[in-house]
Amino acid sequence: MNRRGFNRAVLGSLSAAMVPAPLLHAARAPEHAADPQINGPRLMEQLLQRMAGFGKNPEGGVSRVAYSDADLKGREYVSGLMREAQLEISVDAAGNIMGRRAGSDPGLPALAFGSHIDSVPKGGNYDGPVGSLGAIEVARTLAERRIVTRHPLLVTIFANEEGGLFGSRAITTGLPPDELDHPSSSGKTIREGIRFIGGDPDRLDAARLRKGSVAAYVELHIEQGGTLEREKLDIGVVEGIVGIKQWEVVFEGFANHAGTTPMDRRQDALMSAAKYVQMVNRVVRAEPGRQVGTVGKIQAFPGAPNVIPGQVEATLELRDLDDRKVDRLAEAVMAEARKIADADGTKVTFRPLHANIAAPTDARVRAPITEAARALNFSTKVMPSGAGHDAQAMAQIAPVGMIFIPSVGGISHSPKEFSRPEDILNGANVLLGTILRLDRAMA
Amino acid sequence: MNRRGFNRAVLGSLSAAMVPAPLLHAARAPEHAADPQINGPRLMEQLLQRMAGFGKNPEGGVSRVAYSDADLKGREYVSGLMREAQLEISVDAAGNIMGRRAGSDPGLPALAFGSHIDSVPKGGNYDGPVGSLGAIEVARTLAERRIVTRHPLLVTIFANEEGGLFGSRAITTGLPPDELDHPSSSGKTIREGIRFIGGDPDRLDAARLRKGSVAAYVELHIEQGGTLEREKLDIGVVEGIVGIKQWEVVFEGFANHAGTTPMDRRQDALMSAAKYVQMVNRVVRAEPGRQVGTVGKIQAFPGAPNVIPGQVEATLELRDLDDRKVDRLAEAVMAEARKIADADGTKVTFRPLHANIAAPTDARVRAPITEAARALNFSTKVMPSGAGHDAQAMAQIAPVGMIFIPSVGGISHSPKEFSRPEDILNGANVLLGTILRLDRAMA
């Protein structure tokens, strides 16, 4: 059934904007009532004419890395948009831009939604800004329609997502103090960067959100994979954000003269590493599921055409919604790698680099996302997020959900990243419908 | 039969030094006569106390790269030794140090022997100096014993061997003019380097040796492989110097997000490269022979743990005594690599980097080497040289031969490079015996 068409026919010209806000609120819109709609052209103009200009690269896309001048300009721009959306703005100690709007019930915790505007170096125009500008437009649409929600609303533009969820982790799990001294892509340390965008790295604890202070967090984001586009689906309802573990992997053999060392007398670290690369692929694919395993980095040393590699540095990355599966696969890969090294007379070591635990989304947030999408007659798919997101940190203090829209070709972290305007608008409208439904459903 | 023991018994105290040189020469020493002997302690003192000091590294070995200050000091030192050996010294346009000694027959071409004293960065004390100082000691021993050969003698200390046989190629095949502008390990261009050591890069043609101007060239060198030591043999009689071909190999796939791109939707350039590394090993070992194939260099791009490699740069190097085998193996490797890329949806390209044609040694030089070794009761093995040597260039204008001595553990181009003093002395004595036998045998 084309529910959107039905609603339009029944409600005709009854627009939410024409009804005084308190009345709309008091009446509790029935399930079949049409949600207000996002201003699509305005959202696209903000995204592609304005936001894309901050850190624009000659070859397309942007380099708007966190704590850079381009980041600062982008933040000023979204702050202006948030003011137009009648949000009360503050920058917390971690540099997150927070936009608040009061609800009608002062006892309720806030409904939070947002994303980030920083990019990877040579990134695209969609990863982050779609969810950030979409969230601001949701607030602006509600303000324009004078719809007052029961819950306070909190639009969150998180700082330095791409560097490792720094803004969202700072206010949820907290940051280990040593991370403040790590370098960021801007060249500044995290500490210097936080100060640069108006935060206070010495008072991060003051910005922590306690459990229960947020009723729910919803994030709109591009899929960054090709599933929705390939299956011709409109909306992804994220069932969880994968856990990620990374290791540095070093194979050691013996560097020697490539001309004078017979083939059967070599301890070639690259021979072991080559078998390892294929083994990782085989082990990860051996069981059903959507887990992924990647060797993204490899380099042989000393690295001359005429020297047998004595050392090879590589990596291992494993991702799955189930942390136990990640650990099980890691054990299998390490055991197989040791077998390869033993057989070759080489040595292998694994050094942990980075770990993110998996974050399931909450059924209480997934349900209104699905309902909002169906109310607009969109096809949906429940799917994992293979990438990390601020929602992962927010899951530590609140029920979370994520709305995905298609990425053409699944390309991301690239100037070629692209989502169609109609999909962006669809996503923003689903976010709007989700917030209204959460406002009705959540305590 | 212990021929050395026999000679000693028969000849007793009859030392060559006690016989006037012209008499020795005129008498033509019979086959069983003892050759004069090299002064072992003096040779070792020159090699390890003096030569090893020029470019000495704190961690052992030397960095005496061609055209460096350390190279210059080493050249001054060997020039002094050559003068003590009563050689008439000149530096040719390519910077080679040439030490001449007149023979008794003015119509005969020179017997040439020598090596080089430059090293690779962080090299050892034996690759080059053993043959260079050994050759000078041969000349000095003959001078001390007042033995005058029929042929003129030419001791050759070739310039910049490690950079690519620059000195020896300049006076044989000639250098392509563009190579003069290439950088050398010293930081200087080849042109600047030649000038730095007293050559004249504008007059290289004047230094060319024509075919027939050299009766034979003999080079003493460490094996740089582990065969002689492993098989407990004294002397290697080199049957030829391998041909070498190198390529840069690039695999292209598609870089994408490692979290959001399912395993069956990847164009992972590293998966293809890993199969390639193993395939090279398999193809090269599939047929009998002493050919070697090496992938010494590999690097994935962009090279982050969380990005599927879009490009992998690697190399291919093939070596064999038979250039046709090198070409046949190259064709097989390229065909297999294309099959791998086709199956994986990636692309592979091969770009030639460097080629050295194989240089067989001459039976007329191998025979006296073998005889000289057997006269000293040394075990011998006919073997290829897997490494390149100045003899390779000299083979273009004269019959050549090479004498190998054992390298402990086969380690070379490393501070750990080591040959035992007794093996070094053995090699120098075989060189001396070879020159005397060539002098009798060659026209």
State the main characteristics:
homodimer, 443 residues, alpha+beta, 5-stranded antiparallel sheet, 13 helices
Q: Which structural class fits the helix and strand makeup of chain A?
A: alpha+beta
Can you count the helices of chain A?
A: 13
Seen as an oligomer or otherwise, the chain set is homodimer
Q: What is the radius of gyration of chain A computed over CA atoms, rounded to a whole number of angstroms?
A: 24 Å
Low-confidence stretches of chain A: 1-32
Largest sheet of chain A: 9 strands, mixed
**How much strand content do the residues of chain A show?**
15-25%
Pair of chains with the largest interface and how many residues each contributes: A-B, 64 and 64 residues
Following the backbone from N to C, one meets helices and strands of chain A in this order, namely HHHHEEEHEHHEHEEEHEEEEHEEHEHEH
First-last Cα distance of chain A: 31 Å
Percent of residues in helices of chain A: 25-40%
Shape estimate of chain A = elongated
How many β-strand stretches of chain A?
A: 16
